[in-house]
Design brief:
Elements lengths: L2 E4 H4 L13 H16 L3 E8 L5 E5 L2 E7 L4 H12 L7 E3 L3 H9 L3 E3 L1 H10 L6 H8 L2 H18 L1
Parallel strand pairs: 1-2, 1-5, 2-4, 5-6
Antiparallel strand pairs: 3-4
Length: 159
């Protein structure tokens, strides 16, 4: 069952994430990618207050991120998406702690899970990721470049 998620509603429920952080959306998308990989699910996440230049939809593997322009809300975008899904909405799960969004999702027979409940599910596999994946996520582009130089040098030395 795919998910429709209010991203800014979920971020403060996840330990270590903070709405004031510059890259809070990126951090959430990474967690969602891990979740999708682990569960074989797909996710659409909605972030409101995007600038005109930053608004739009971007695909990150099984995660589709919708950056909703300022002047409208993620709640409205989720409502619109549910409306477009029509009868198929019953096959989706909406993640939000907003009671109005939950009520509207139930009204179209979508499943509902609170942001708090989903945060627990989302972070379940966070600590069980392999050390390799955890280390790879923390490397800066400069560190990656350095490792590539080291490994290509060792490879040419052994020839």
């Amino acid at each position: 069952m795919p998910y429709l998620i209010d991203g800014h509603n979920l971020i403060p429920k996840i330990p270590g994430l903070n709405l004031q952080a510059v890259d809070d959306e990126v951090d959430l998308i990474r967690l969602l990618q891990n979740f999708c990989q682990r569960t074989q699910k797909t996710v659409e996440v909605y972030f409101d207050n995007a600038s005109i230049e930053g608004a739009g939809t971007r695909k990150y593997g099984a995660v589709t991120a919708h950056f909703v322009r300022a002047g409208t809300t993620a709640d409205n975008a989720i409502r619109h998406r549910l409306s477009r899904l029509r009868g198929a909405a019953k096959n989706w799960t909406v993640v939000s702690s907003d009671h109005q969004v939950q009520a509207e999702a139930r009204g179209v027979r979508a499943q509902v899970i609170s942001s708090e409940g989903f945060a627990v599910e989302l972070t379940k596999g966070k600590n069980s990721d392999s050390t390799k994946n955890a280390a790879a996520e923390k490397l800066t582009p400069e560190e990656v470049e350095e490792w590539l130089k080291i490994f290509s040098k060792k490879k040419s030395d052994s020839n």
